[in-house]
Design a protein that fits this description.
The structure holds two protein chains of two kinds. By secondary structure, chain A is α/β, with parallel strands linked by helices. Chain A is built from 17 helices and 22 strands. The two termini of chain A are 42 Å apart. In chain B, strands 1-2 form a two-stranded antiparallel ribbon. The longest helix of chain B is centred in the last third of the chain and has 27 residues. The chains are: A alpha/beta, B mainly alpha.
């Protein structure tokens, strides 16, 4: 056991539902060092730190912290043992003030007549002190809802410092910060490091990682592919390590090629802080990929295209007709379909039957006028036709609730629902997220089939490999802008990832 | 007998669509020996005359509950409608006193008032994004107060005979009030189970976000539901007003809990997405039967209320068990 080590991971393993997320992960963190944890989405970074933070437990392996065997039963337990966790989504109560947030896990208490009262004076005094140490000059009775994202981040750190944390985990802390706020955070991190506090820093921004960190651990598919002091790495090397694998024959080939006819044309689409000057064309029979890291604005773009969110400038036209801004009904009428990334909450009526879900979009075209009654016989025929075409496995379309279907079958229900409205433009946002390999393959075949029959597909995915396997072209987004359009002959994981990181190719 | 089979039989009974109907029949059979008068023609007529207006209100409430909302303003709509209708057609200082079209105009005014209040509720819930509970609580207080203020708390008498016919008369053997309530129930049933709007109402109640993305005009559907509930409450007001031959601002003030209780006992969920008109018919019959038979037993109003509370609790427990059985 090395005296200098604050934290040691030894053969940590974790599986979710039989899928291995971490296998035999080992690395160590020195006292007073900042460790950069990098990897693609889904490489296991969050899982790794969630184990440390007491959010989940590991299946096997050991963690040593401050020279002792470490386990955390809950986030509160981890906090008591000296590990502060700053999540990507901040965990502050916006309706409480700063001091209350800092002390939320254990208010200082004074007993008067055996009744515990919050010792407000002691709490305020200590809170002021902690705010001072993170360089935040605000009164500690300010409500958190009045603070900017950057200030909230500093409050989170003050909260972590309350029990003199020895280790602070920062999971993507800069995604919602402005450049200036990020600088402030980095300065604070350096200062904390000076006081002997260690940090684990997770970020997609390799520039920041190289600036701040002493050591780097690269994860890929739940494995540590390399680890060591930062001097040993270059940005390019880290990117190569992150993407690693070669493409296999997992993606079914498509027989058809895209047409010249443009189905969807977007020009100069902007909305402040969300997307900036987006222009794209989607042709008949084309599968157009959209790549980018989390927070790059991909899903936001999809929502705007479908009329769910507003935009301030630019134009969207479908088959040459300008699409009016407004509710999704207009988008559906003009021939668009939208499979959202959130299947459970936005794609399906979980408590309704499979048939009712499939029928939802096309109902108006099966309604007789003027009675307003639904022609249920022909609707039923169409629904079961679509269900069998997509091979939805359900014991009873009318009686089985969608909630009880597997993830892959649920996704097929969403696809079937849109197929019945006969759209020409499909926007698919993470269509294969959280479904098993076999079902993924079937979804890929459906996508090829759609393109083969003359639809245009806008495929948004976090998996670069999936995009390279499926798409005719790939647009890469970073910070709300399209940074590149990569054609099939130029497909290269590193190249795409570099654009996604907002960098120029070398 | 095999306990397994026995168990399944009970389960089947509890999860059946007709469970509340069976429960009503069981209640009737149990209570009948104690008060044989329960089955007298006169009493059955009495049960019906209490039940029909309640049924009409409850059907409107059912539509709102299916969308995942709640309408607390129905009782105020009944009072307000009653007052407005009476002040149009009363031969004592009414707007159209003595005019042969007074009854028709009065009924039209009542329905319009109800639909208007419901529409306002709908706007408050959709455009202003107010929680349904608060929106309709506010309108319950406002319009309830308005009805009392308009009349200075005085009932309005001297309603035209053609209007009173609606609540008390009969066409051949069919009482008019039964016809009105029956038409409302059948109409609501067809709307909910067969029409596009009905499908949309269930979809919105199950998941408004999914519905919106799938092209359902969520705001319009929800607004419609509240307007329909207001309209139903106004129809009930016609029945109540005609039966009492009086326009009164406090008409129906006590029935709010009966309305919601009956709907929920019928099986309509307070969380939206589940319910139908037929269930509500059973729920209302059950509540009215209990009410009536406990009265026949000579129990006081307070005891009747207590027992009803217990029965609603029982029904809620059974509903929870049903959900568990259906889920398992």
């Amino acid at each position: 056991m090395n005296e200098d080590m604050l934290l040691e991971y030894e053969d940590i393993e974790k599986s979710f539902f039989g899928v291995r997320v971490l296998s035999k992960v080992s690395f160590a963190l020195r006292k007073g060092h900042i460790l950069g944890l990098v990897g693609e989405n889904g490489a296991g970074k969050s899982t790794l730190v969630n184990i440390l933070g007491g959010v989940i437990s590991s299946d096997a392996g050991h963690i040593r912290f401050q020279g002792r065997e470490y386990t955390a039963a809950s986030p509160a337990d981890a906090f008591r043992q000296g590990i502060g966790f700053i999540h990507q989504e901040l965990n502050l109560f916006t309706n409480l003030d700063v001091a209350e947030n800092i002390f939320i896990a254990g208010f200082p208490v004074r007993r008067i007549a055996c009744i515990p009262w919050i010792d407000a004076r002691a709490m305020r005094a200590r809170a002021e002190e902690l705010l001072g140490s993170v360089g935040l000059a605000i009164p500690c009775d300010t409500l958190v809802e009045r603070l900017s994202q950057g200030e909230r981040q500093l409050v989170e750190i003050a909260k972590a410092l309350r029990l003199s944390a020895r280790l602070i985990i920062l999971d993507e802390p800069t995604t919602s910060l402005t450049a200036r706020e990020s600088e402030r955070l980095f300065a604070l991190m350096k200062e904390l490091q000076g006081r002997g506090i260690s940090m684990i820093f997770i970020s997609h921004n390799l520039g920041d990682v190289f600036r701040l960190c002493d050591d780097i651990v690269v994860l890929r598919d739940g494995l540590v592919v390399d680890a060591g002091p930062v001097e040993r790495f270059s940005e390019n090397r880290v990117i190569s390590l992150m993407v690693g694998r070669s493409l296999d024959h997992y993606y079914p080939p498509r027989a058809t090629v895209p047409d010249e006819e443009v189905l969807l044309e977007v020009s100069g689409l902007s909305h402040p802080g969300i997307v900036e000057d987006i222009s794209l064309t989607l042709r008949r029979g084309e599968v157009l990929g959209v790549s980018g890291l989390m927070g790059a604005g991909r899903s936001e773009l999809a929502r705007i295209l479908f009329g769910l969110d507003p935009y301030t400038r630019g134009e969207i036209s479908v088959k040459g007709l300008r699409m009016p801004s407004g509710p999704s009904r207009a988008a559906i009428r003009s021939g668009m379909a939208f499979l959202t990334e959130n299947r459970r909450e936005e794609g399906l009526l979980m408590e309704a039957s499979v048939a009712d879900n499939i029928a939802l979009v096309c109902l108006p075209s099966f309604t007789r006028t003027p009675s307003g009654l639904v022609d249920s016989a022909s609707l039923k025929r169409e629904v079961s036709g679509a269900a069998s075409k997509l091979r939805i496995r359900s014991s009873s379309l009318d009686r089985q609730k969608v909630r009880t279907l597997s993830g892959g079958n649920q996704q097929k229900v969403v696809l079937a629902k849109w197929l019945l409205s006969g759209p020409s433009v499909f926007i698919l946002d993470e269509p294969t997220r959280g479904i098993d390999v076999g079902a993924k393959h079937e979804i890929y075949k459906i996508i090829n089939d759609l393109a083969g029959r003359g639809a245009g597909v806008l495929l948004i995915s976090s998996e670069i490999e999936e995009l390279m396997g499926m798409c005719d072209r790939i647009l890469v987004m970073s910070a709300g802008e399209i940074t590149a359009c990569v054609e099939r002959p130029e497909y290269d994981r590193e190249r795409i990832l570099r654009f996604a990181l907002g960098r120029k190719p070398v | 007998m095999n306990p397994q089979v026995e168990m399944n039989r009970w389960k089947r009974l509890v999860v059946s669509d007709y469970w509340v109907l069976y429960l009503s029949i069981a209640c009737f059979l149990v209570l009948f020996p104690f008060t044989p008068r329960l089955a007298s023609i006169e009493n059955i007529r009495n049960i019906f005359s209490n039940m029909l207006p309640l049924l009409v209100v409850a059907i409107g409430e059912t539509i709102v509950l299916i969308t995942g909302g709640i309408d607390l303003s129905v009782t105020s709509v009944i009072g307000l409608s009653s007052v407005i209708g009476a002040s149009i057609m009363s031969s004592d200082q009414g707007l159209l006193a003595g005019n042969p079209a007074a009854a028709a105009a009065g009924v039209a005014g009542m329905i319009l008032a109800g639909v208007f209040v419901g529409w306002l509720n709908g706007i408050a819930v959709t455009r202003l994004r107010m929680p349904p509970f608060i929106a309709t609580l506010t309108s319950m207080m406002f319009f309830g107060g308005l009805a009392v203020w308009l009349t200075q708390s005085r009932p309005i008498y001297d309603l035209p005979a053609r209007f009173i016919e609606l609540g008390q008369g009969a066409w051949l053997w069919l009482p008019n009030s039964l016809a009105v309530a029956g038409v409302t129930a059948v109409f609501a049933h067809v709307l909910l189970s067969r029409s596009l709007l009905g499908r949309w109402i269930y979809a919105v109640g199950t998941n408004p976000r999914t519905s919106l993305i799938s092209g359902v005009p969520v705001n319009r559907v929800v607004t419609f539901a509240y307007a329909a509930s207001g309209g139903c409450a106004a129809v009930a007001s016609v029945l109540y007003t005609a039966r009492l031959e009086t326009g009164s601002p406090v008409l129906g003030q006590r029935i709010l809990l009966d309305v919601i209780g009956a709907t929920v006992i019928g099986g309509t969920s307070l969380f939206g997405g589940k319910g139908n008109a037929l269930w509500t018919v059973f729920g209302v019959s059950f509540i009215c039967l209990i009410d009536n038979s406990l009265n026949m037993l000579g129990l006081s109003y307070f005891v009747v209320t207590m027992v009803k509370g217990g029965i609603i609790l029982f029904a809620a427990l059974v509903d929870a068990a049903r959900s568990r059985i259906l889920a398992g």
